[in-house]
Amino acid sequence: MAEPFSVRVSVRGYETDTQGHLNQAVYLNYAEHARWSLLQAAGISQARLVAQGVGPVALETTIRYLRELLAGDEVDVTCAFEWSGGKTFRIRQEIRKSDGTLAAEVTAVGGLMDLTARKLVADPAAVFKELTTDPGLFGL
Fold first, then answer.
1. Are strands 5-10 and 54-65 parallel, antiparallel or unpaired?
2. pTM above 0.85, yes or no
3. Which of 11, 29, 117, 123 sits at a 20 to 30 Å CA gap from 56?
């Protein structure tokens, strides 16, 4: 299996809390940044999704915090899609310090919403496959 998509992020001081470590909610921002970065790398912009009449939706997100992150830390945020053949898909992500230490694991369940019908599309993998310039980034 190929390495998952990854993007580097620098922990900024204003993202930290009174204990000096990354605020818990910012981990979700990093995960979301990696997801949109993957879409962009795959040739899929927000405008392209809207033109197709679909938009990604988050249905469930779980974050497992393992190590603290401090201002100035460099982290790599991975993003890997898993397909089950239904209306939803799973996204597995890791946030690792530059030394390889696993700081957090993020798992999410998502779907693609038909923006007119306001319902999940039946086969989100097929839509991504049609829109992308690089199906491998989605594990397709």
1. unpaired
2. yes
3. 11
